[in-house]
Automatic annotation (TrEMBL):
EC class of the enzyme, as a word: lyase
UniProt: Mg(2+) binding residues: 98
UniProt-annotated binding residues for substrate: 75-78, 97
Enzyme Commission code(s) on record: 4.1.1.112, 4.1.3.17
Record note on quaternary structure: Homotrimer.
Reaction catalysis annotation: oxaloacetate + H(+) = pyruvate + CO2; 4-hydroxy-4-methyl-2-oxoglutarate = 2 pyruvate
Name of this chain's protein: 4-hydroxy-4-methyl-2-oxoglutarate aldolase
A Gene Ontology BP annotation from the UniProt entry: regulation of RNA metabolic process
Family under the similarity heading: Belongs to the class II aldolase/RraA-like family.
PANTHER family tied to this protein: 4-HYDROXY-4-METHYL-2-OXOGLUTARATE ALDOLASE 3-RELATED, REGULATOR OF RIBONUCLEASE ACTIVITY A
Source organism (scientific name): Marinomonas hwangdonensis
Amino acid sequence: MKDLLPELCDRFPDKVRVVEPMFANFGGRERFGGEIVTIKAYEDNSLVREQVAQPGKGKVLVVDGGASMRKAMLGDMLAEKAVENAWEGIIIYGCIRDVNAISELEIGVQALGAHPVKTEKRGLGDLNVAVTFGGVTFVPGEYVYADNNGILVSSEKWDIN
């Protein structure tokens, strides 16, 4: 299997925006992509819990956790719920926990790192707003693609299977 991102960058150099390299791959699916759904929330994963309970076929949840390295925005129970609801992947600009369990799930998960402490549940955050990190703006309704080479965003939808 060819590496996805280098192929897309070579074929469509003017149609991709590449995220700065800072993410690690934690999910059982190393290659994923889909329509962007965003959350902006700092150390509160209430909206993550709500969204992974929704149908996610063809979608990737992009969570701007403010690069917090103090709390995990995703754990195994929420990742399992995302798998049940057919989400393609989750990108966390922040930390996750339950790394070993998440690595066995059939979902793509990329994050900055791992941290064992869970977040507060205060119901704070914004859903489906443009978020910017890694030098790229993630716009709800556009598309994100990820593999072991990194993450890229495009307004174009490509079949990656």
